[in-house]
Amino acid sequence: MDLRSHPSLKYWFSGRRVCVVGLGKSGVAAAKLLEKLGALVSVTEKRPRGQVASWIGELPSVVPVETGGHGFLSKDWDLIVTSPGVPGVLWRPFAERGVPVLGEMELGYRVLTLAGRWPVRTAAITGTNGKTTTTALLGEMAKAAGLTTVVAGNIGTPLCAVADKIHGDTTLILEVSSYQLETAEAFRAAAGAVLNVTPDHLARHGTLEAYARAKFRLFQNGGAAVLNAADAWDRRLAVSVPGNVYWFGLSPRKEPGVYRVGNRLVSTIPGAEGSWAPPARLAGDHNVENALAAAACARLLGVPSSAVAKALREFPGVEHRLEFVREVRGVRFVNDSKGTNVDSTVIALKAFPQGGVHLILGGEDKGAPYLPLIPLIKTRVKAVYVIGEAEPQIRRDLGKALSLVKAGTLEKALDQAFRAAVPGDTILLSPACASFDQFNNFEHRGRVFKELVKAL
Q1: Where residue 133 sits, what CATH number does that domain have?
Q2: 269-313: per-residue pLDDT in tens?
Q3: pLDDT in tens, 229-243
Q4: Which of 4-18, 158-172, 232-246 is predicted with the least confidence, judged by mean pLDDT?
Q5: Residue 63 in 3-state DSSP?
Q6: What is the C-alpha to C-alpha distance for residues 152 and 162, in angstroms, rounded to an integer?
Q7: DSSP character string of 255-300
Q8: Residues whose CB falls within 8 Å of the CB of residue 54, separated by 6 or more in sequence, listed in order
Q9: Are 331 and 423 in contact, with CB atoms under 8 Å apart?
Q10: Which CATH number characterizes residue 327's domain?
Q11: Is the domain of 32 the same as that of 124?
Q12: Which residue(s) pair with 132 in the sheet?
């Protein structure tokens, strides 16, 4: 049955006045799904119309769009749907007045649940770093088993955008962020993983503990939990998980889980055992951890051990995560635009033990200190080129210890770095910052970087 004709969805959405707060991928996907279900949808966006014209063009013509402010929020609404990046100060007053507030992911979950189409085999991956790689790898494991698989969420395709493609026998793999989990109420996955918790999004969540607890909302309604045995917050908050807990780690433990044992990845999960060679095309211990978590979730979903092994052999990695772009005059260019926090950039720099790195750093500041970068920059980086709004914060933390080149824009930083580089050097975009000061998202930033490199 088509979603728009389902009686339960008609009852809950047809004729309801809904305001979608925030454009972008999530806002457009939510608005289009709601309009299809018969809701009276309006959209409000703080950015000026010129900056969001492409998103507006994707909306049905019957959907009113307000830009340059949030005057629509002074009206009465039956439902508020918020995009992940929208701060709580805009939607919490509605929740306090009893108006339902749903995030885009929660909306997709409720639509599919009401329609009886929420899949039995669903896994959700969160954490500060490694989400995209783990999500994509898990999706490949499911596909290798011949399962009808949908990979969506924070990885780039909103759940609402693929709701029509999902049925009860679909294997659904979701990347979920702390922003999405902040508005999760009923959402439940059969298996979920918190890969790690390190300082990130502190400007939004306030404290590291609040950020960690937002991640652990993933398990508030049950489901198997896959946690990192080496992560302090995972160990601390494991007691809050209502369902079964399984662990992953680079060293074996007595608790059931998936661990590196010698040169093998070994599952000791009862009824979901297995042993595999490590990922063939992913470098670094951080990617071994990602593979351990993906294998644990795959086996908990019933993916055969042989399919896990096939994906580990063949998975090439993901775009914008330590992605080799090209080599020009002996200089290598690497796109790590997905490095949107300090810890992620630390991981990226550890991948270049030989040194000779020209690091492009900066963007929209996220509230975490840049000080942890100093030891790695001193030993592995020739020069740091700073871009974006975070320049004052980066200079405050790093300026006394390091020499920084103020570039301002990505194009200027790349030009300056290429002029200074010699054969054997690497120009690395790993910004340790969000992208929203100059780009639509980290994918946009990464694509611009690659286009500039290809034009050299």
Answers
A1: 3.40.1190.10
A2: 999 999 999 998 887 888 999 999 999 999 999 999 999 999 999
A3: 999 999 999 999 999
A4: 4-18
A5: coil
A6: 8
A7: SSEEEEETTEEEE--TT--EEEPPPSS--SHHHHHHHHHHHHHHHH
A8: none
A9: yes
A10: 3.90.190.20
A11: no
A12: none
Beta strands in 197-309 (DSSP E): 224-228, 245-249, 257-261, 264-267, 274-276
**Is the same domain home to 8 and 42?**
yes
pTM of the entire structure?
0.82
**Three-state SS for 133?**
helix
| 108 is a domain residue | no
Split at pLDDT 50, 70, 90, the class of 82 is very high
Burial class for 244, CB neighbours closer than 10 Å (0-12, 13-18, 19+): middle
Q: What is the pLDDT of residues 44-68, one digit of tens each?
A: 999 999 999 999 999 999 999 999 9
pLDDT tens column, 386-400: 999 999 999 999 998
Q: For residues 229 and 252, give the distance between their C-alpha atoms in angstroms, rounded to a whole number.
A: 10
Distance CA 228, CA 257 (A): 10
CA 24 to chain centre: 15
> Which helix (H) or strand (E) covers residue 350, if one does?
helix 342-350
Report the pLDDT value the prediction gives residue 62, as an integer from 0 to 100.
Answer: 95
Which residue carries 């999902």 as its tokens?
166
Question: What is the C-alpha to C-alpha distance for residues 382 and 422, in angstroms, rounded to an integer?
Answer: 11
Total domains, the chain: 3
Q: How many CB atoms lie within 10 A of CB 263?
A: 7
Residues annotated catalytic, as ranges: 131, 154, 201
Token readout for 138 is 């898990």
Lookup: tokens for 377: 């920059």
Question: Phi and psi for 306 in degrees, rounded to 5?
Answer: -65, -35
Beta sheet of 79-82, edge-to-edge order: 65-67, 40-45, 17-21, 79-82, 101-103
Interior/surface letters 4-26, b for 16+ CB within 10 angstroms, e for the rest: eebeebeebbeebebbbbbbbbb
